[in-house]
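Practice problem: predict the structure.
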Amino acid sequence: MVHDYARSNAGGHSIGQVHCGVFFDRLYDFQGLNMDPEFADMLKDPCPQTKPFGFMALDATNGTFDSAYYLDLLTSKGLLELDVALFSDLLGLENAMKAVQDRIAFLNEYTLAWNNATVLWSPDGR
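Answer:
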């Protein structure tokens, strides 16, 4: 059950940016999960190794809360290794495909997961 919440909460990565240095290991010293080679080459221009504090959008539609983040993961264009790992098994792939195919289901799953996370993280459990 926790994994489902983690996968759904990861949808929050649909908005925002990340420092380039956070994914340098995947970009320049690749030893982890798969990243599309053309996508990786494209990232090297705005994120050269000399600029670890540069910023990159977390998904293709930065600033819009939508399921494009999941489409990026399905096409090997996820930036964060944690996100890619969450969706590297069959259940994760099913969740990502469902989010891409059904926007309302994605929003409902995210809302449920976020509500559960706030209960888990609150000091009094309410």
